Amino acid sequence: MSSELPPSQVRAATVPIGPSTNFLLIALIFLGTGLAIGTGAVAGSGVAFVFVMAGWLLSLCLHEFGHAFVAWKGGDTDIPRSGYLTLDLRLYADPLSSIVLPLLFTILGGIGFPGGRVFVNTHLLSSKLWISAVSAAGPAMNGLVLLALAVLYSLTGEESDTLRAVLAVSALFQGTAIILNLLPLPGLDGYGILQPWLPEPVRRFADPLAGHVSLILAGLFLFSGAFGPVVFRISLLLIGLLGIEIVDARDGYGLIRLW
Description:
This protein is an all-alpha fold. It has helices spanning 21-39, 45-74, 79-82, 89-92, 95-109, 128-155, 161-181, 189-194, 200-206, 213-223, 227-241, 246-256; strands at 2-4, 118-120. The longest helix has 30 residues, at 45-74. The model is unreliable at 5-15 (pLDDT under 50).
């Protein structure tokens, strides 16, 4: 997700541009556990859980990097000094609302729950189109991650059923993240894409709700019997169109459950 920060509150720069050590470490864990699963060196729910969650954290970093990179290209010259171009997870979020809660929902519900946030100075962006593009860049990055997972899945032999399963459920989480992020709710990217074009009275009413989007989504999942299943079914349809077997996604979700 992206959100607007007044000029006086733009973050000071402390981090250089380039992949951070934290990002590279998560990537190493993702690749290492994937290789171990694929070769049969390790097995079990624990390693499957680590693989899927490492992949999810990588996608969160790439999602937020997408926002930051497009904002930089669109005119926000403060972005490089903010550290957002380092893909460092620590700079994108506070631990509770942007990491712990999304991971918890992902684990408990099989849903890629939106998490993370970069602060963009929209006053520096050169047009409304750039403002919309900044919001669209996050889900676009999730789309690229989803395509990469689909390619890896297609290259994995049927004898590597565990690896296919964890790749499939990782793709499922990306699908749900794309769907949820594109909802036109304040605080989500779908609303951010529309926001520059909305009438001022609508923005005055809707913008303050952005800080409560996690609670709004939680309420929809908990108290609407249709919302969660609809999101889940659309995501299954999406990964199915990419050639990923639904049964593998279901097997993968069973593998990452630690209880």
